[in-house]
Amino acid sequence: MVVCCRVWVPMNVLVLAALVILLLGAGWAGVLIARFRDRRHQVIAGLLLVVALTHLASLLRVGDAWGVDVSIQLDDLPTIGAALAVLFTILLIQHVVMRDESQRAEFIADKAYLTELFENSPEAIVLLDNESRVLRVNAPFTDLFGFSASEITGKVIDELVCDPECREEAYALTQRIAKGEKISLETVRCRRDGTHVDVAITGVPVPYGAGQVAVFGIYRDVTQRNRTERVLRRLQKAVETTQLGVTVTNLDGEIVFVNPAEAEMHGWIPDELIGKDVRVFAAESHAMPMTPDQLKAVTSWNRETVNVRRDGSVFPVQLMSDVVRDPEGSIIGIVTTCEDITRRKEAESALRGSEERYALAARGANDGLWDWEVQQRKAYYSNRWKSILGYEEIEVEGTIDWWFEHIHPEDRDRVQAELDLHLEGQSEHFESEHRMQHRDGTYRWVLVRGLAVRDAHGEPYRMAGSLTDISARKRVEETLARDALYDVLTGLPNRGFLSSLLERAARRVRRRKDYQFAVLFLDVDRFKVVNDSLGHETGDQLLVGIAQRLERCLRPGDVVARLAGDEFCILVDGIGEIGDAIRVAERVHDELKTPFVLNSHRVFATVSIGIATSESGEAAEHLLRDADTAMYRAKARGRARCEVFDRAMHARAMRLLEMESDLRTALEAGQFRLAYLPVVSLESRQITGFEALARWEHPGRGIVSPAEFVPVAEETGVIIPFGRWALREACTQMGRWMERFPDRRDLTISVNMSARQLQQADLVDDIRQVLADTGIAPQQLKLEVTETVLMNDPDFSTGVVQRLSEMGIQVQIDDFGTGYSSLSYLSRLRIDTLKIDRSFVSSLGEHGERAVIVEAIIRLARDLGIHVIAEGVETAEQLESLRGLVCEHGQGFLFSRPVTGDAAGDLLGAQTG
Ligand code: C2E
Ligand code: CA
Ligand code: CA
Q1: Which of 693, 816, 893 to mutate to test the pocket of ligand 1 (most atoms within 8 A of CB)?
Q2: Structural contact between residues 586 and 578, judged by C-beta atoms closer than 8 angstroms
Q3: What letter would DSSP give residue 601?
Q4: Residue 264 and which of 4, 461, 853, 881 are 20 to 30 A apart at CA?
Q5: CB under 8 Å to 310, separation ≥6 — which residues?
């Protein structure tokens, strides 16, 4: 298809128009091209323009004459397309390039703006690359952290402003931002000088370049804000927890804030009160709000008034109000604290009450009064208070210090401590006894009582009380205290006092390596005998005499104490070795060598001494026990001796203890037997009776002698059931002999009695029962007691002996001659028989004092109508001597050893037969 058009156009017009178009086209393209910044773009666009123009020009064919023939044929289409494409390309290039250009201009404008922002921002800002390296920081940043920009640029930020332990975490955060996250956090960073700063950080990703992302970090210093917040929080906590009520009101009197204490005090919940008129708290009669004019005139005001609770009840309060102003100084509200002063009011009225009571009591009891304002240290002292100390009214300073200055220096600290205790609320009353200086310079004992009055917080603000002169009472007490520490008879320290001295010495041992002490336990030998025979009064005189002599044996620092009865103790202070203690003991023995003259009697006294030393490491009270054990050993070894405590002794003491429990089981298990020792007529050598002697068939130890177990049985009380058994057993045996020898109605059985048995209230009834059960006549039973047993309590013994002899039972004195009893006394006791102790009998045949005594005893006894039995006759010589002295009866190995009941029967049989 040929599209053909032929237009006739006058030549000159066409040429002109074509030129104009070309010029305009070229001009327009030129302008466009000129705007290209890039020279390559200009060249390309220029060439394209030329190509496009050439193409279009090729379409112009000059026709006839001045006509221009424009014909577009099919084969012209590529040319037209190419020209259009070229023009389009130019347009496209122009569009793209121009947009680029305008963006660039915008970017430059933005950048300037951002730089402005960056540099002038009050916040510290840092720009980082996605490896956390610093690209740029602003001045606030360098100010905040103390690094210069050059110091920090290119470095990893986290290594500069983070503590080592949180660097990794910070780096991870930067990475997250670099990946496109936006992060805000509050944390702590450190400055160049190592100090820390609380910061709020905002991190935003900033894309730049090809897919690159930078991190834009904004740091705000929140240290001050945090500190303020903490203070505020604390303040709020304080307001919420204080026991004081706090209310804030606006100028209209509406409550805008109230703390829990205030609400609770008035029976409300805080939220319920917001917006209410503050007069909700005021009791009607006390509601007196301030006028704005009055408010202007004041800044703060206090008052005591009465408030009302939600339930209508009222209570006294102390209110303190302060005006709150805005920064310009105009009043915006009132803050009021409210304190419930019910307790203080009660205390005050109690004080008034007690003051009245005190005043009354003081008039009656002659007490001085004092009243002290604690904070001010001012004190009021009544006239009586002053006169107790000998002062006139004006001479006493009205301060508490005056009082303390006049307290005895030794008492001052204690009084202060007692007072502090009360002021701190740890003692209900203040009560103190101390010495105060009288005007005459002497010290008087006073009793001070007082009571502190406290505010709602328990702080004492006032204290009042009385002062009493107790000097007279103290004097009595001191005497009593002396008696409590000292033995009244001898004036020596008593057991209690000694214990405290021992404790003190024991403490010193613990403190000082080189210090040791010894305890001497002294027991007067045979003191009982003196006491019993010469009377208690003489006994007392002897103790006083001994005490005086013991004191002479002491070295400086040593103490002698009386423990009880005839027991003394010497504390030997600071010994170097055991010899020091033994030397003291020797001095004691020496000192006692000269006899005492008491009521014209010459009395020899010896002591047995046991020694224990602190070297054993025992506690103080154990030392005394050990010394006691050693003393027993000394006694057992023959009086007037001294023994040092050792382990073996302890073991012996332990054995004694064991024996006690063994004794009880022995009785139940039937381990006791009786052996029978014949009593013989020295004249005819016929057996007139037997003495029953106990034997213990111990399963482990064999036969145990009564000399060993009877004392233990006596000490432990086992002797009572044991004695009952022995009596019944002996009478039963007697019954058997009677069956065998019914004619021997003259035969007697002697049973040994210990002191404790004699004291038994039902002894007589017991005996009567045994006699009835065994069919033995009372005349056949003889009871043997030692003279000391009888002398223990002569009146009591007389009664018992009398009742027994009324029954027909004879009482014999055993071991006669070892005690101090007098024969005439024994005859008065209606004693029938005495047995001369073996120690005298064994001395017969010698020409000594003892033999003379035996003679005298036998002769005297005969004169008084008392029968005599000689004990322990071992030799024919002794027998002859006794017969010469007309001693009727005897016992002893010369006649027979103690034998079993059956063997004794055989002895009888042999005689009768
Ligand atoms: P005692 O009453 O003086 O008893 C006499 C002691 O002298 C007995 O010792 C006896 O065996 C011993 N004896 C007798 N003749 C001679 C002699 O010729 N030469 C020697 N060397 N000794 C002789 P025994 O049996 O060991 O009794 C000791 C003490 O035990 C008794 O002394 C008595 O006081 C007490 N006793 C014994 N049995 C009982 C008892 O059943 N009850 C009580 N309370 N005490 C008892
Ligand atoms: Ca006897
Ligand atoms: Ca005897």
Answers
A1: 693
A2: no
A3: E
A4: 461
A5: 266, 267, 268
Please tell me the distance between residue 237's alpha carbon and the centre of ligand 1 in angstroms: 93
Joined tokens for residue 773: 């059960």
Contact (Cβ atoms closer than 8 angstroms) between residue 573 and residue 505: yes
Q: Read out DSSP for 317-356?
A: EEEEEEEEE-TTS-EEEEEEEEEE-HHHHHHHHHHHHHHH
Nearest CA among 823, 884, 885 for reference residue 858: 885
Sign of CA pseudo-dihedral 49, 50, 51, 54: positive
**Closest Cα to residue 241, out of 254, 255, 259, 224?**
259
Measured from the Cα of 705, ligand 1's closest atom is: 26
Q: Calculate the CA 337 to chain-centre distance.
A: 41
Eight-state DSSP code of residue 819: S
Residue from 811, 754, 755 nearest 783 by CA: 811
User: What six digits make up the tokens of 577?
Assistant: 């070795």
Q: At a CB cut-off of 8 Å and minimum separation 6, what does 792 contact? A: 528, 532, 755
Query: Is ligand 1 within 6 A of the CB of residue 891?
Result: yes
Is 893 close to ligand 1, i.e. is its CB under 6 Å away?
yes
CB atoms within 10 A of CB 673: 14
- Among residues 657, 569, 579, 564, the alpha carbon closest in space to that of 615 is found at 579
How confident is the model over 347-378, as pLDDT tens digits?
A: 777 777 666 555 545 454 567 888 888 888 88
CB 578 within 8 A of CB 611: yes
The single-letter DSSP state of residue 524 is E
Instruction: Give yes or no for residue 812 CB within 6 A of ligand 1.
Output: no
Gap from CA of 784 to ligand 1 centroid (Å): 11
> Which residue type does 514 have?
D
CB 413 within 8 A of CB 404: no
**Residue from 66, 49, 82, 93 nearest 7 by CA:** 66
pLDDT digits (tens, 9 = 90+) for 440-470: 999 999 999 888 888 878 888 888 888 888 8
Residue 723 alpha carbon, nearest atom of ligand 1: 42
Q: Whose CA is nearest to atom 16 of ligand 1?
A: 872
- Terminal alpha carbon distance of the chain: 196
What is the rounded distance in angstroms from the CA atom of residue 453 to the CA atom of residue 738?
93
Q: How far is CA 520 from CA 582, 607, 644, 706, in A?
A: 9, 11, 9, 30
Residue 1's pLDDT band, with cuts at 50, 70 and 90, is: very low
pLDDT for 517-535, tens place per residue? 999 999 999 888 888 888 8
CA angle 426, 427, 431 (to 5 degrees): 145
Phi (first) and psi of residue 565, to 5 degrees: 40, -115
Mind listing the pLDDT tens digit for each residue in 731-761? 999 999 999 999 999 999 999 999 888 888 8
Dist CA 901 CA 691 (whole Å):
11
Please tell me if the CB atom of residue 506 comes closer than 6 angstroms to any atom of ligand 1.
Answer: no
For the Cβ of 839 lying below 6 angstroms from any atom of ligand 1, the answer is: no
Please choose from 708, 752, 757 the residue to mutate so as to test ligand 1's pocket, defined by most ligand atoms within 8 A of CB: 752
- Read off the tokens for 623: 């030392």
C-alpha dihedral over 802, 805, 811, 816, to 10 degrees? 60
Q: Which ligand is nearest to the CA of 750?
A: 2
Q: For residues 221 and 238, what is the distance between their CA atoms, to the nearest angstrom?
A: 27
Instruction: Provide the sign of the torsion angle of the four alpha carbons 286, 291, 292, 293, taken in this order.
Output: negative
φ/ψ of residue 735, rounded to 5: -60, -40
Angle of the 901-912 helix axis to the 719-740 helix axis, nearest 10: 30
User: What's CA 282's distance to the chain center, in Å?
Assistant: 49
Residue type, 397: E
- Write out the H or E segment, with its range, that includes residue 213: strand 212-221
* Bridge pairing between strands 255-258 and 672-681: unpaired
CA dist., res. 375 & res. 287, Å (int): 33
